[in-house]
Specification:
single chain, 555 residues, alpha+beta, four-stranded mixed β-sheet, three-stranded mixed β-sheet, 13 strands, elongated
Length: 555
């Protein structure tokens, strides 16, 4: 169901059969495995280099979800991290739509396998879902296969595959757009799909809705009669789908926005897309230069608009050549508007900063938490659709031209490295001699977005202890505005000051108060961190090297 019936023309009849569809699916799966073969070599022992600390965070989410469910505890909340306040997991990217169904994989094979499986099936499944949609309402099977390939393996998809599975598993979106007759059955199916997408990633659903809204407005201007007919036919069905979805997600969303450790407005600063990024190649493209790409993005996992100039030239040429087709005009204008929306609060045009669209949009509810440049990802299926339409129109020359445009952005495999070993203190259960049930281990420095190792230690100990701070999103300050990590207590601040070369200064009373607040039984430091080691020897007495880590008992 979508705003417009993008029916194939008589010359665009579908070809092939089930075996071709199967070959397309296998081709996508093989491509995903090749890209991720580094992590598949040892899923529980390897780490995607460009994920930062995100892989540690995601594996913690997968493991803690399994722990909560199998122990009969609320999967939407946990005090295992950020003790004693806890973490609102519904307000984080726990991805319950997959982390809960894949609990058997997490428990039996490890969260590293869950991580690799979700990324692999996410890339291949997204490609196949768009191919399925294109082949049924837009283009021939071969042309749709090319369009789907681009949608599943576009530069932004590869960028997010390093760290953000919620922006890789996008197969539900094209399933929402499949043609369906109006009525109760369609309302139920679409409502279920919307609810499921909420449990996969709410921001993706918001971005998709934004793209669909822009598409609808453009379509209403270009084809007003078709738009009004669609609204009359599907208004009741759309309302019904919303009711079905709301009935399923009302309680989880209430917990997310009003439950413990909920927050509002997660500010990212200005993360719009520089205009130059659209014509450049991303860090993993055959023609890419990581230094150039990273100079135009906030980090390697947010390269959202690096389509490359050859592809943009081809897409522009297709829109001009096929401009008599209303669907091409609608798609082209929609892509242009979405690209503009992704530029953020300000745009540099010929060296001059001018206000961008996000100067207004960021004040709207929900949009105040969106990373602006991600709007550019909504252009991906539009470009995929235009490529499929162009191939069907120009046949052999179309394949050649599209292949030439896509060749520079063919991705190289993602870099995976050996993960550092977990200290025996945690892996072999030695921590049990130091930590009572329900009490905390305090890592120095504590876990946060720059230090994910404590999450790995806690997972290795099967969540036998809690940890303060952590890598998550929660409320900060009296207004409850969202922020990354915990609001630091004086001891946490001191630890990070020492880590950065500062002084080991804190009053004994404040240190004691913080350790009591955290219900701490032990403080730990990795070997080699001499400044921290010296600091804790001075504050807590002489530590002991146990199972590959320095330990101080908290008396």
């Amino acid at each position: 169901m979508t705003v417009v019936e993008l029916r194939p023309t008589p010359t665009q009849q579908r070809t092939g059969g089930r075996w071709i569809t199967l070959l397309v699916a296998l081709g996508y799966l093989c491509a995903a495995i090749v890209l991720l073969h580094g992590i598949w070599a040892d899923p529980n022992g390897r780490y995607l280099w460009d994920s930062g600390q995100d892989q540690n965070q995601w594996q913690w989410f997968f493991d803690v979800t399994a722990h909560q469910v199998l122990n009969g505890q609320n999967p939407l909340f946990s005090t295992l991290m950020n003790y004693p306040l806890g973490v609102n997991l519904m307000a984080n990217t726990a991805m319950f739509g997959l982390s809960i169904p894949l609990i058997p994989v997490t428990v039996w094979l490890g969260s590293g396998v869950t991580w690799a499986l979700i990324l692999t099936l996410g890339l291949a499944g997204t490609a196949f879902a768009w191919f399925w949609m294109f082949s049924r309402r837009l283009a021939s099977v071969p042309a749709a296969a090319v369009g789907g390939l681009f949608c599943g393996f576009a530069p932004a998809m590869i960028s997010h595959a390093n760290a953000h599975p919620n922006f890789v598993v996008l197969a539900v979106i094209p399933l929402l757009l499949l043609p369906r007759p109006p009525g109760r059955r369609t309302a139920i199916v679409v409502g279920l799909l919307i609810a499921y997408q909420i449990f996969l990633g709410e921001e993706v659903l918001l971005l998709a809705a934004t793209g669909l809204l822009v598409f609808s407005v453009v379509h209403a201007i270009v084809r007003p009669l078709e738009s009004s007919t669609f609204v009359r036919r599907y208004a009741g069905t759309i309302i019904g789908a919303g009711v079905v979805a709301l009935a399923i997600v009302a309680l989880p969303l209430a917990w997310q926005f009003f439950g413990p450790q909920s927050y509002h407005k997660l500010g990212h600063g200005d993360q719009g897309t520089p205009l130059a990024a659209f014509t450049e190649f991303n860090s993993w493209a055959l023609a890419g230069d990581p230094e150039t790409a990273q100079a135009l993005s906030v980090n390697p996992t947010e390269e959202n608009a690096f389509f490359g100039w050859p592809l943009l030239v081809v897409v522009l040429g297709l829109v001009i050549a096929l401009r008599k087709q209303p669907r091409v005009r609608i798609l082209g204008i929609t892509a242009l508007i979405l690209a503009w929306l992704s530029t953020g609060r300000s745009v540099e045009v010929f060296g001059v900063e001018v206000p961008g669209p996000w100067a207004v949009i960021r004040f709207l509810p929900l949009y105040d938490s969106v990373v602006e440049s991600r709007i550019a990802m909504v252009c991906i299926p539009i470009i995929g659709a235009l490529l499929a339409i162009g191939i069907d129109r120009f046949k052999r020359i179309g394949y050649v031209v599209v292949a030439a445009a896509l060749l520079p952005i063919v991705p190289v495999p993602l870099m995976a490295i050996e993960r550092g070993p977990t200290p025996a203190f945690f892996a072999d259960g030695l921590w049990r001699d130091y930590v009572r049930p329900g009490h905390s281990v305090v890592p120095a420095p504590p876990a946060n977005g720059a230090n994910g190792a404590p999450l790995q230690w806690q997972r290795a100990a099967d969540f036998g202890f809690t940890i303060p701070d952590g890598y998550f999103v929660g409320p900060h300050g009296p207004t409850g505005k969202g922020g990354y990590g915990a609001q630091p207590r004086p001891t946490s601040t001191m630890f990070w000051r020492v880590q950065d070369g500062g002084e080991c200064e804190i009053t004994p009373a404040q240190l004691e108060a913080d350790l009591r607040y955290w219900n701490a039984d032990a403080v730990v430091v990795q070997p080699g961190n001499e400044r921290m080691h010296t600091c804790l020897d001075r504050l807590l007495g002489r530590g002991s090297l146990v199972g590959g880590i320095w330990v101080w008992r908290v008396v």
